[in-house]
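User: For my dataset I need records formatted as: sequence, then structure tokens, nothing else. Please produce one.
Assistant:
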Amino acid sequence: MRRLFTPILMVLLLTAPFPAAAAGDQVSFIPQWAPQSQFAGYYVAHDKGFYTARGLDVKILRGGPDFPPSELLPAGKADFGTMFLTAALVKRAKGIKLVNIGQIVQRSALMLVARKSSGIQVPADMNGRKVALWGEEFQIQPRAFFHLQHLDVKILRQGTTMNLFLRGGVEVASAMWYNEYYRLLQAGINPEELTTFLLADYGLNFPEDGIYCLESTFQKDPGKCINFVQASVAGWQYAFAHPDEALDIVMKYVNAANLPTNRPQQKWMLERMQDIIQPPGADIPMGRLQEGTYNQVARELKNYGFIEKIPDFHQFYRNCGSSHEK
């Protein structure tokens, strides 16, 4: 059963005493991709005034593959950003002092797709084939999959569309269950025509989108970080409880960016986001990064050679959720 965000709970969240923050603190936030329902909670928090209620004047920047948060945060071009746990962990292990202040997505939705007509039915069939992957930050899980399956593939760069795959330029492409997979169906491909490899089904169920900032940002003003995370969580809860209103808000951002999508696709995405943010049967408070999950992911990254030393969990994670650290 879904945990709905009731009006009473909304009142409690918006009237509860917040950590001290200067009125109208200006902060910038960059999601790791272009405007879509993947970030509905942040758009809702902005447009419904949840950030303002906590003394934050939030500017949402345009994200995408050419604007990785892991580079913009250290460069001082954004205060907060989203990224995969794996990407942030690798950066932290390399000395970039990113901290996770809110783990939003608890399950992996990353997958590889192929046409059955290409002869790809099982992982071994990918050997020697052309595979499209997004930029460095999104390649960790697929590369771990190739290592696990003992595959030697030819990697090509994938952009924001599925055109390379649709036109036969590659035999395997990256996809998110909540996004590109649905685009393929909209393009006229039947599910029965596709072979899908959801990486979570191959022991690589790594939590994805979390909220990050620099360690120095948190140390300078932990109250600001707590306010941003808790307002964002409120935005997600409101979006799941009021999906039609949330979609209205998302489509405003989508249309302003002139993106080739539509409301049905964004509706599918919002529903799938709830599946991976609030997985059925899991009782994890939204925004919480569990130490056991972190250690499991970190060990896998070390085993596959992505990191040499596992960063200390308590240095990497700052709990800015319902109970927070000072």
